[in-house]
Amino acid sequence: MKRGQLSDYFEGVVVKRLSAVETTPAKSNQHEFNGSTPLRQLLGDEDRRNIPTRFVWLGGEQEALSVEGTVSWYDARRMHPVRTEYRLYYPGNEVTGMMQAGDVFFLALCRDGTTMVIITPVDSTIQNQLLWLFGLEEQPEFSFAFQEIEGTHNADLDFAARYILDELGIEPEEPEAGTLDDLIERFGLVFPKTRDFSELARSSLPEISALDDPDRALIEWMDREEQLFRRLERRVVAERISAGFHSPEGADVDGFLSFSLSVQNRRKSRAGQALENHLEAVFTAHGISYARGAETENRNKPDFLFPGQAEYRDPSFPAARLTMLGAKSTLKDRWRQVLSEAQRIDDKHLLTLEPGISENQTSEMQSKRLQLVVPRRLHGTYRSSQQVWLMDLGGFLSVIRDRQG
């Protein structure tokens, strides 16, 4: 089932790389871009003052900042009979204060008339993801480029698109909300064990077969579990907020912050466990021998070891028939952790659901003899040069079957 389109949220976007002059605010801490054809395509010819805007800076591991502000679009020569002089103006804030020359500047016009300013480091994974999301194939130059969303590019909100929207703090609506609520009704306001949630996700999609299409199965199962989790989380959080955060001294700020942090941590930990649960189901369906969380050297515990721990610890068992697979729903800079998890295995494998990882990172993975495994549906978010090297889950299973005879 389709779950909305990008045009439900955005009308268009412009993008450019920032020059040194553009990252240095004036003495009054104001930023300004001269109007250009791409900006006029996005914002039109009418003056628009104080447009509500969310400024977002997205960097590497755990690096994100969001503040509310405004931008203004106007013709400084509006009263002149023939001349125009359009400008995009916005005051400085915590996000603009982090901008550096070479960073990439996205200005997206939202469907509700507000805008988003998104700043990313150049050639970063999040930059690649946003370029893919908005249908901007070329690397940004120092002048603005415009992309209309509806018509020219209007991506369906598939797994990859919703992953990136989540990075921006946008949670798409679920067209199957009623069905999802029926499925989680049994849990009330208590989160079940992750394994139970994973089994529910798979059983709710009986038409999906890991044996027929393991790549599709993994994505669909993860997607469904995320839907179920977010619906239950919404109920639990709403109930806790309704109860309020009070202490004898007044508002319980520490309690609120602790609760908020627990929500974020639960999301991250459950996503990783869910991925391993569904991979287990795939391996079982294909009759693959494996060990989950088996211990190797120095108490390291690879997510999956093939064919198992006993074979790994047996010096007479050929190292060429051993395989390890790390599983991380998102990578950021954590992929290097798997390099030391199984010393007997020179060429390691790592599966992720993160779309559009930067070329710098995948090149380093190749140099470290780490093969990235990505479900086939996500390959299109990577550049053509990367796609040649990527392995899908079906290909990984073929490698394991060959080694296990």
UniProtKB/TrEMBL annotation:
Keywords: Endonuclease, Hydrolase, Nuclease. SUPFAM superfamilies: Restriction endonuclease-like. It holds the Pfam family EcoRII-C. Residues 229-396 form the Restriction endonuclease type II EcoRII C-terminal domain. The keyword Zinc-finger does not apply. It comes from the Bacteria. One of its GO terms (molecular function) is type II site-specific deoxyribonuclease activity. One of its GO terms (biological process) is DNA restriction-modification system. This is Type II restriction endonuclease. It comes from Govanella unica.
